[in-house]
Each structure stands twice: as structure tokens, then as C-alpha cells.
Amino acid sequence: MLLIPALLLLCGLLLLIPRLLLLLLLIPCLLLLSGLLLSSLLLLIPVLLLLLIWLWRWFLNGLFLLCRLIQWFSNWCNGPRESSCFVR
Question: What's residue 6's pLDDT?
Fold first, then answer.
């Protein structure tokens, strides 16, 4: 009964997470399904930390791109400025 939502979640994560991190996440999930609860939780903690770091980097990259887009748009709205190269 829990296998179908778990597979759907893994398919959704495949679109967002690099394949190596997905494989690291898959091992504790399989152990959890097989009943080895303690060992799967011990393996899941570092994988979740890696996932958190990856998501934080993704968020910061998106924020940086948004700031660059705002800067480009504000420069475009202000129009071209005279450069010191063209001033005689």
C-alpha cells in the first residue's frame, strides 16, 4: 500500500535531484521498506543533510539569478549611459 506513493515520490525526485543523490536516497528507503528501521534511519540522516545542502545551493543560485535579472532590467530601464571610452 505504501509502495505506490513511495515510487511516485521517487519519480518526482528524479526530476529535481541529481542521480547520485537519488541513489544515496534510494538505499535507506529500500532498507526502510525491508524492515531494517534503525540502520535505514542512520543512513537516511546524512543523505537528508546532503539533500538539504543541495536544495540550499539551488535556492541560492536561483536568488543570484533573480538579482542579476533585476539588475539587468533596471539598467535597461535607465537607458544607456555615456561611457568614459566615448567621452573626448
Answer: 66
